[in-house]
Amino acid sequence: MNFEHKSVMLDEVLTALDIKPNGRYLDCTLGGGGHSKVIGEKLNRDGLLIGLDQDDDAITAATKNLSGLACNVKILRGNFSELDKILDELGIDKIDGALFDLGVSSHQIDTPERGFSYIKNSPLDMRMDRRKNFSARDVINNYDETALIKIFHEYGEERFSKRIAAAICRNRKISPIETTGELVKLIEQNAPHTKNGGHPAKRIFQAVRIEVNGELTILSDAIKKAVGRLKIGGRIAIITFHSLEDRIVKETFKTLAQGCICPKNFPVCVCNHKAEIKILGRAKLPTLAEIELNSRAKPAKLRVAEKIFQRT
Fold first, then answer.
1. Beta 277-279 vs 230-240: how paired, if at all?
2. Assessment of whether the complete model's pTM goes beyond 0.85
3. Is the per-residue pLDDT at 196 higher than 70?
4. pLDDT category of residue 5 using cuts at 50, 70 and 90
5. Which end of the chain, N or C, is more open, meaning fewer C-beta atoms within 10 Å of its C-beta?
6. 3-state secondary structure of 135
7. SS3 state at 186
């Protein structure tokens, strides 16, 4: 297996996490271990690197990629929504940093049989965790028209959601839609190419992938769990690749960084609510030089926060 994936904003992530040589760091989206490797290279023998991923290909690749590090390395298969449980099982209470690199990996997109790409014809799949039975085929063939319109509109921000959903429902009455190629053909027939919007299937594939993997429904809660595990002064860094993810990260950070929550008409604070994090600047973007080397880095945004108060 050749797990090809260029991790984005490596230098920015190292700066954001402010690595302590003997610290404990959690990579919630391990992938092939690109970010984890540069973090691990900053750790000494007393440092600990924990990597989570739900993709078996990623676990295999990362295990090989991180094998030469001096620090302690623990690689586990699991979803970041389970990070509390996983840290408890490891006997770890607090960590010095957490990283989320959201979205789909280059390896997943470029492996035809995974069904993530609208360019290559393959079975409808899109599961990041192949232990699960629920796939893109189930969404496309079993969701009613209203449900399809909803996910296409909300997760894909697709203007032609109704037209595409109606076409899918008509065609699957004749025979099930089994491949990405069949789905792409239906989309192309019902959603015209736009000058700056790219291929019309891009938004629908994004929407279906998000639905299959529950990517947005678990994100805010996972961020709060990670922040809860940080030591005072610990950092959380999150890379997003589209506006839906970024909006959730931004709003969750805003909530965690909020101090007094008393009604505005109260003359003095009586809630004693403390901000849990401090947001460290605005979202950072990849450099033009990085985008030239890796076009998939273009939409990336990095948001960073620091733990300043521990809730009991």
1. unpaired
2. yes
3. no
4. low
5. C
6. coil
7. helix
3-state DSSP of 38-76? HHHCCCCCCCEEEEEECCHHHHHHHHHHCCCCCCEEEEE
What are the backbone angles phi and psi of residue 74, rounded to the nearest 5°? -125, 120
* Residue with token string 């610990």: 234
Rounded distance between C-alpha atoms, residue 255 and residue 250, angstroms:
9
* Per-residue pLDDT reduced to its tens digit, 37-58: 999 999 999 999 999 999 999 9
Question: How would you label 170-191 residue by residue, b for 16+ Cβ within 10 Å and e otherwise?
Answer: ebbeeeebeebbbbbbbbeebb
> In terms of Cα–Cα distance, which of 33, 37, 88 is closest to 62?
33
The phi and psi torsions of 99 (rounded to 5 degrees) equal -125, 135
* pLDDT of res. 4: 54
For helices 161-174 and 180-190, what crossing angle results, to 10°? 130
Q: Please answer whether residues 305 and 279 qualify as being in contact, where contact means their C-beta atoms are separated by less than 8 angstroms.
A: yes
Are the CB atoms for 185 and 200 separated by under 8 Å? no
Q: Which amino acid is at 280?
A: L
Taking only the tens place, the pLDDT of each residue in 289-305 is 999 999 989 999 999 99
- SS3 category, 166: helix
Tokens, residue 45: 């023998």
**Both structure tokens of 12:** 């920015």
User: Does residue 13 contact residue 280 with C-beta atoms inside 8 Å?
Assistant: no
**How are beta strands 24-27 and 95-101 bridged, if at all?**
parallel
Exposure b/e, 79-116, CB count within 10 A at least 16 = b: bbbbbeebbeeeeeeebbbbbbbbbbbbbbbbbeebbb
Residue 256's CB: how many other CB atoms inside 10 A? 23
